[in-house]
Amino acid sequence: MAKIGIMSFAHLHGDAYASCVLANPDAELTAVWDDDVQRGQDAAQRYGTTFIEDMDEFLKQGLDGVIITSENMKHRHMVEKAAEAGLWILCEKPLAPGVEDAQAMVDTCKKAGVGLGIPYPCRHVPALKEVKGQIDSGALGKIFAVACTNNGQYPGGWFGDEALSGGGATMDHTVHVADLLRWYTGKEFTKVYCENGNVLRPGLGTDDLGVMHMEMEGGIAISHIASWSRCDSFPTWGDVTLEIVAENGVIEVDAFNQKVDVYNDDDVKAQWVGWGMDPNGGIVADFVASIAEKRDPIATGIDGVKSVAVTVAAYESARSGQMVDV
Hints:
This protein folds into 2 domains: 2-120 and 281-300, NAD(P)-binding Rossmann-like Domain (Rossmann fold); 122-275 and 308-325, Dihydrodipicolinate Reductase, domain 2 (2-Layer Sandwich). The protein has 10 helices and 15 strands. By secondary structure, the protein is an alpha/beta fold.
């Protein structure tokens, strides 16, 4: 039985991971720590576990691993503290807003001999896994180009504060697609051109729309839109879509289209309720297994560094107006 702790419920995914830990027969949610005491106490009560106010005491609770769902700028400190305590770590994406910090986190975990993983849900979506299988089998042949989107609702709060987030929609959403395409192709990104800005929600203080042209090894051309363009009344948070143009055909994927339309009079809105595998459950199950097997989770710290590098290059391109090497 893996004893799991959660560090911070600042990120909205913290609740999903907590529920998945409770549902996993091989794990228990042992304790919660949060630098926002009220938020941490509320979460501990919600999930029937213990809140510990002091981080050092929290890390001494006999834990096997921690899930970090804090603000982006706080990831490095928490990862390094958990690594020093000898714990396996699942750290919310982006691993860090900068490549130097992200690489330092990987180095710290390697030195401590602990696993470090990034919760990229796309690796656990059945439709996306099916496409991975077709690519690996050679059925599609050579990939020439991919058009992709990750459009979502504005999460609110600290996501719009660059002092805590490090960036807006371009950072929040590009890392997902960057990781997915690296996983699919086994190739690295080489160049990025990006135009972004605050165009959808005036006065936000960070970018809410990013449009990118990217290139990968072998000349694969990528177009990508990352945005917080979904309105508050939209039935779900957003999307991940792909159109892959390959030697033997074209394949289109709508990652989260396994859904049922629900008209909810309590919330007075239409909703899309997903059916099939829960990718968050897959993330937690893999993390728990990685602890038992003493390995990194499926999406490793290095995968986190590589996707951050693409995002950092996108912001550099947006500032300079030039194509930037990754």
